[in-house]
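ok so i was messing around last nite and threw this chain in just to see what happens. nothing serious, just curious
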Amino acid sequence: MELVQAIARWLHIIAGVMWIGLLYFFNFINAHFAATLDGDSKKKVVPELMPRTLYWFRWGAAWTWVTGIVLIGLVYHRGGLMFEDDYGWGVSAIVMTAVTFLAVFLYDYLYKTKLASNLRLITIISFVLIGATVYLMKEWGGFSYRAFNIHLGALFGTNMAFNVWFRIWPAQRKIITAIKQGDAPDGDLVALAGLRSKHNTYMSVPLIWTMMNQHTIALAGGNFGITSSTNWLVLMIVVAIGWHIVFQLYKKSAKIKGF
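result:
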């Protein structure tokens, strides 16, 4: 199993670099570059560039998610890192593990409602729901510090992979076809693909923190005034900081110009 873990980690990182690297390319570089193209240039560039990049993008997402699930099973569910000392696999732990992988449907639903039109409100709702989920993982499910970190990461990763395969890729196929034929793409599809890609970018930075949780256990309690009962708040602070980092990266990317 140690050998399987090593191989799964290796593949997970390779696929993750492929996926997140292209995600940042799309959001911080390509979006601004595409805005400079005229109609004829788009008709030539987009059908050649986007199918190639989206191929590696979606399969990077798929392999990152699959190898991540393998690692959660081996390292946490099978490896003894899942629970605090007094907890084990009970109803609450099973429910919160299910929430990790099923919350994507609530996320998808919320961002189809009218609430999504109010950016500040939907952001607050999202943050509160994330906080409640992390709190319940710890206090009700008995997840250890590392376990609730990685399960929030898996929740974000599931949302992101869902967006790639079921929202971004289907929309982009229609957008690319329209541009290739010289037609204006459907504005709703452009908005959907752009929004879900932006969501993925915002989720990616705190997700990376959760992936390196083994190296953040100084924040698990006992240091810096953090106790074991409040260490879940550390993760929420990281989520907020991560979102702010992405916000600043978007602002910076808009200011970088070509020659």
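not much to say yet. The mean pLDDT is 97.
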